[in-house]
Amino acid sequence: MTSPTTRSTSTDPTATPNAPVPPGQVLIFDADDTLWEMNQLFERVIEDYLDWLEHPTLDRTAIRRILDDIEAANAVAHGYGSKVFLRSLGECLEHLRARPATARERAEIDELAVALIEHRVELLPGVAQTLDTLGRRHQLRLLTKGDLEEQQRKIDVSNLAHHFAGIHIVAEKRVDTYVELTATHALEPARTWMIGNSPKSDINPARQAGMNAVFIPNQHTWVLEHDEVDPADTGVLRLDAFTDLLDHF
Ligand SMILES: [Mg+2]
């Protein structure tokens, strides 16, 4: 039996299953902020951007609120990724200065965001070794949302692609995304686990599609990915670190 209800006898959110699950599960991994740090890079750029703006009247919190609103609107209109992020930084500047950004300002913003533009990837601790071990026991897949080309480049430079039976890059992760994935690849939801840092994109829609989930919070998770995870849901395993997967799978 691999039903999640047999794996935890308590509704205590800190409770963990007593025994590892049997081999032959399908483990689907989120990428950004699960396999590698991503939002932290964006946060560093935003800090530098706020220093660079030096607004005469608005403080950092007020400017950050404006930028968050612009980012939320642009995510809906244009999706995710560094191109959309740069666009948001430019629009925030234009909003604050009440005029178009100059070519020089655009170049300076690009310079602030060089780590993002070059798609640098910093793996979280133990990720490569953990995937290597898990891959001998289970089928691994990767499911990431964002700009197709940008996500693919990060996967390429991560050197992790060989661990996965399938790599799926989608525009958004909604319930129907998970339902479609299980249907297309004949996955059995009860033996399938979505592993990620985002309640909104990874945990809650996967649960609604009938899968199990592993929630590994990342302290740098983007504000737009925040949501509640039902603490009474025994189908969600909550772990502190990626390497803790080895104790359960
Ligand atoms: Mg993520």
Automatic annotation (TrEMBL):
UniProt key word Hydrolase: yes
Lineage: Bacteria, Bacillati, Actinomycetota, Actinomycetes, Propionibacteriales
Protein name: Putative hydrolase of the HAD superfamily
Domain of life: Bacteria
Chain positions covered by the region annotation Disordered: 1-23
A GO molecular-function annotation: hydrolase activity
Biased segments, Low complexity type: 1-17
UniProt KW keywords: Hydrolase
Native source species: Actinopolymorpha rutila
